[in-house]
Amino acid sequence: MLSYRKKTRDMSKMKNLVQRTLSGILVIGAIVASLLLGKYFFCALMIALTLCIMVEFFRMTMGGEYRFSQYLAMFAAVTMFVLTFLYTGFSLPGRLVMLAFIPIFIIMVNSLYVKDKTDFGKFAYIYTSLLYIAVPMSLTNFAVFKGMTYDGMLLLCFFIIIWASDVGAYIFGITLGQKYGRKLFPAISPKKSWIGFWGGFLLALGVAAAMHYAGMFTYPLHHCLIMAAIMNVAGVYGDLIESQWKRHYAIKDSGSVIPGHGGIWDRFDSALMALPAGVIYLVVLNIL
After folding, report:
1. For 187-191, which contacts have Cβ atoms below 8 Å and span 24 or more sequence positions?
2. Beta bridge partners of 145
3. Residue 141 and residue 195 in one domain
4. Helix (H) or strand (E) holding 49
5. How many domains does the chain have?
6. Whether residue 90 is found in the same domain as residue 128
7. Final residue of a domain: which of 105, 128, 151?
8. 32 lies in a domain?
9. Neighbours of 135 (CB within 10 A)
């Protein structure tokens, strides 16, 4: 009986691993293709990711309450991204980017007309979604345009660093961290360990160096390594931030869109912090 149960558990784990691997490959393939095919594919990809993450965020924090305001927030997010896209890729005058604030002001005004104020505090999640999701995704425009020329390679390198960090943390964490390592944030994410963190950190730096020598990451080596280090740390915090949200609302996954992985937010939680960290580093040092 025990042998049968063990065999069933092993088969279930194997099935989940296969499912997780295949769906992960499809997601990575879609991202790589979208970034390399051109600016309109990039635009469609980032808008789709932004909306999917916002839907999962609202479903967890607000449910069906203030639905119209949720739609307004998603419209504001798309407006912000599109105006930034036009500014970086089509020389839209910078002053017109300020039009992105109009939908946000409409959200504020709309809150005055909501009749049921019972859970009015939940309106804070509307503004949080814009700062936490819409702004970071809009900043990715600065990583793909040089002048008005589109090049998705830098953003692809950013994603590869994030993926390398996740893979390194998972492999080192599952093989060594659970048994020997101290926990990173046990109150928020009990499975994350310091060994996993350093495994992800080292693999991210190694992959950044490899991409530099392969001609993909075209900045000087020291900048590539510094960016990888900053993005790794930012990505870990991004992961922990989402874990804290999920722990507060007592849910395991933000959704079930990606078989074996959960929701879109679950797969891009690190990116919400890591991508803008990489962009900000390059912009502040004026080397983008």
Report:
1. 188/240, 188/243, 188/244, 188/247, 189/239, 189/240, 189/243, 189/247
2. 150
3. no
4. helix 39-61
5. 2
6. yes
7. 151
8. no
9. 17
Residue 16 resides in a domain: no
Same domain, yes or no: 218 and 266: yes
**Tokens at residue 127, please?**
């503004």
Confidence bin at 2 (pLDDT 50/70/90)? low
- Same domain, yes or no, for 159 and 287? yes
Q: Tell me if 30 is assigned to some domain.
A: no
- Say how far apart CA 59 and CA 56 lie, in whole Å: 5
SS3 for 185? strand
- The span from the CA of 181 to the CA of 192, in Å, is 9
Contacts of 91 (CB under 8 A, 6+ apart): 148
How far apart are the C-alpha atoms of 152 and 33, rounded to whole Å? 10
Q: Which domain holds residue 270?
A: 152-288
Give the whole-angstrom CA distance, residue 96 versus residue 102. Answer: 11
> Tokens representing 148?
């008005």
What Rg, from alpha-carbon coordinates, does the chain have? 20
pLDDT tens digits, 42-69:
999 999 999 999 999 999 999 989 999 9
Short-list 52, 73, 172, CA closest to 125: 73
258 inside domain: yes
Tokens of 13: 């784990």
CB atoms within 10 A of CB 32: 14
Q: Are residues 118 and 160 in the same domain?
A: no
What 3 state SS string does 53-116 have?
HHHHHHHHHCCCCCHHHHHHHHHHHHHHHHHHHHHHHHCCCHHHHHHHHHHHHHHHHHHHCCCC
- Asked which of 92, 126, 151 is the last residue of a domain, the reply is 151
Residues 64, 92, single domain; the answer is yes
What band does 206 get if pLDDT is binned at 50, 70 and 90? Answer: very high
Q: What is the pLDDT of residues 116-149, one digit of tens each?
A: 888 888 899 999 999 999 999 999 999 999 888 9
